[in-house]
Amino acid sequence: MLSKRIIVCLDVRAGQLTKGIRFQGNVDIGDPVAAANEYYQAGADEIVFYDITASPEGRGIMVDVVARVAAQIFIPFSVGGGIRSVADMRRVILAGAEKVSINSEAVLNPELIAAGARALGRQCIVLGMDVKKVPPTATIPSGYEVVIHGGRTATGMDALQWAGEGEKLGAGEICLNSIDADGTAGGYDLNLTRLISTNVRIPIIASGGAGKPEHLCDVLTAGRADAALVASIVHYKTYSVGELKDYLQQRGVKVRRDF
Amino acid sequence: MIGIIDYQAGNITSVARALKYLGHGHLVSDDLKILDRASHIIFPGVGAAGAAMINLKKAGLDRWLAEYAASEKPLLGICLGAQIILEFSEEDNTTCLGLIAGSARRFPEGLTHRGELMKVPHMGWNQVHFCRNHPVFQDLRSGGEFYFVHSYFPVPVNDEWIAGRTAYGIEFCSILARKNIVACQFHSEKSGPLGLKLLDNFCRWDGRDAK
Fold first, then answer.
1. A interface mutation test: which of B11, B139, B200 has the most A CBs within 10 A?
2. What SS3 string covers A146-204?
3. Which of B124, B143, B193 lies nearest to residue A5, judging by beta carbons?
4. If DSSP codes are grouped into helix, strand and coil, which group holds residue B196?
5. Cis peptide bond upstream of B121, omega within 30
6. What pTM does this model have?
7. Nearby residues of B124 by Cβ (< 8 Å), 6 or more positions away
8. Is B194 part of the contact surface with chain A (CB cutoff 8 Å)?
9. ipTM value
10. What does the pLDDT look like over A41-88, one tens digit per residue?
11. Strand-pair category, A204-207 with B102-106
């Protein structure tokens, strides 16, 4: 059977790693290439690089970081942050990434999802969604609103509707980040994850809130996620990727152990 | 020299990168004269069968591949490459290369396992159970996990050509093997150390199937 994936997220700023806590007060914690290699060796199933300053400051992607990672890491990895055109996507893919993740850019220009899928294949396009809980309204019936620019800008869009539209436009996966849970280490937003995962037919990567192995287990079972994104929990050595997988396996969640 | 066929079907640079890491000399080309120099051919591919066949024909690679397959030199198909070596694909109802008798079929909609819907594409790490011995399986154990991304899978007409199977709502053929041809539905070049080992084994294979 298909394993549930543990995806390690590395936030990159100026070619260095950071881990944002609620997207503010970031601290540099090291070289992304070395870190990616460490997680590859430790059994991470996939790696995501997110250029955390790229979107607001309009910076490009660090293509040479991507190329250096691709020369030594032979698992899928994706790159997000500041990708605004198919040309941007192609640069990152040719440098060696398997997928690109688009978030704010997709909200501002939904056609980018379709154009990317046509040019590179659906499997290359990850729709990143930052979502915030709000009181349900006529325009946001699910009670989850899409926010952009790292959570600073509300869009008035319903997260469930946007997920469905993203799928229709050609996204191959959705990386669903709860702004409320992100950085709290209090667990993923299970309701949000289950809501989206059971209403689209593409894989859902749950993001935001992992603090304990139980949180991963919960989101991969009750939350119906296909993959769990982790960052601080492994960057700060609270748990290793191996320990997370040990726990999941004990709880009957199928994970990749043979690497 | 390992030849990697470049026919505008998605990103083939990751295969070249893996060979470089493994220390195998390789060339990436769509030029028949250059590909003629290769001792081994890797036929990768991401994308749709219809577009891929159009590109192959345009470059004359369809006939070149048929001739190559009839030689005794080793051929490795990867992902889409494992589908269009068959006679037909349900994707765009495409007539394919016919190097191995069979067709590529789509995962049926609505497959479930323990109440959970099997999403299509089948994306992620899954186990490959070997059905037989093969030189490219050397030092690999049956049941290891490889990285898949696909909506269609190979169905050869003869079950004896199924060298590996994987379960995803149904059991499907994840490795084909016949004579000098081996083809894997998963991305060996993105499947960590196990995938690299399989690629390395292929690059050292003489094309003889010591079945």
1. B11
2. EEECCCCEEEEEEHHHHHHHHHHHCCCEEEEEECCCCCCCCCCCHHHHHHHHCCCCCCE
3. B124
4. helix
5. yes
6. 0.93
7. A2, A3, A4, A5, A45, A203, A226, A227, B147, B148
8. yes
9. 0.92
10. 999 999 999 887 654 444 544 788 899 999 999 999 999 988 889 998
11. unpaired
